[in-house]
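Appendix B, Record 12. Input sequence as logged:
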Amino acid sequence: MKKIIIITILFGVFGLGCTKLDEEIYDKIPGDLYPEDAQQVALLGVDAYKQLQPLADDEGWWFLAQEISSDEFCGPTRDADWFDGGKWLNVHRHDWSNDDESVNRMWDKFFSGVTTSNQIIDLLNKLEQNESILNKKAEIAVMRSFYYYLILDNYGAAPYLTSAENAPAQPYKISREALYDSIVSTVERSLPRLQVADKKYLATRYMAFALLSKLYLNSNIYKYGGGSNWGDEALVKANAYCDSVLAGPYSLSATVSAPFITENQNSSEIIFSIPYDEDNFQGFRLHMRTLHYQMNLKYDMPVGPWNGLCVTPNFFDTYEESDLRREAYHIFGPQFASDGSQIIDGLTEEPLNIDPHLPALYMTAENFTQVQIRATGARVGKYEIKMGAKENLSNDFPLFRITDFYLMKAEIEIRLNGAGSGDQWINPIRERAGVSTWTGATLDDLLSERGRELYCEGHRRQDLIRYGKFTEPWWEKTVTGDPSVTLFPIPKWATDANPNLLLDPQ
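Logged structural output:
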């Protein structure tokens, strides 16, 4: 079981063996079990990683918010289905409030990660401070920094807390710039104590290099207010950390689909991931949210999908017909059951043929046919749906993937040295996808390529903001020019509980 493998890896932090893990799997370790031995210290860190579990679905909303708020993905209303109080429409149209589900749940889950990490560090501080404990504290501090990175990216200014025991009841915010500096400082300070290893479920040194590269590349937004100003040496530092990632034990897979297969935990591309498992670490249900109701017949699924999320038509059309990712990452066209027979839509009684061009974001029977409502919009096929898939997938979700850092390296080179200087980093990815290589690629070219390659990995919102395009109009999103939409508001429930969050940063 993958969950057992995860805990085995965590035990390996101290080079320890472990037995009978199938008899007892800890989701949360009671405080009265500590401090007894190094094995328990290793287990103590597990809960910091468990806070990643809800991020890929609507319990935590991070993945959904990054994609649906962008130009590449949407949750259309399909007559009586998928309106849900407007929550999917609001995110795509940038029309959210401080009481939207997406806004509420991201803030809650991000700070749950911070608080859990701080609780672990508080407990580690009470132990004898040997090398193992100091290393574990550094690792958990980096995990806390990862959750703060999500807060920084999505909410901006926020309270910065480094202890659960000593946290004020109603903390004040610090500025976005100060939060950025605190995160960077913590991660850089922790680097020497992190493992230099390809352990995709741990905050290793490579994971920290990746995080720092992301922070420095987006520093024009986080610290310098947008535009073309990255500040002194920020791009140079982003470049150096990107080089450190690229020098690690990672490489491009032979095919575009390989990093996303069901058992992808050994992928050569994945640096840091959420280790989903259909039974033991549930929470990745993208196939349920995207597949047509009858497409369980295609995969022999014991449950029926919900026929919802899909790619926007304009984004789908950015893929050339020869691009291998067009079919590898999307599901469209005639659909067949596992026995080879054509699937018939249960309502229209028509053969199921997914038209990738969704006609509208809001569809009702008054204005659209049931075929349009039920069978339009290319569905997500990027993550393998194995035969017999259950309600939860066992594909790990890549938070950091080496291909992203090829494209980040290209972006840094272009920003530093002009068009064409990033070609050597873009072209291996385009070659693998079966499309022609580029000479003289520009930043706009690169943004389009990032979209095609990193589709449905949670990067698009951040990319569009960094490129200054998030407030531009796109398919079924006409609100433009308001820079406030580059951040989500702090939830009303949080400001009701702590009015200090409404004050200017201290």
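Residues 37 and 396 are 30 Å apart (CA to CA).
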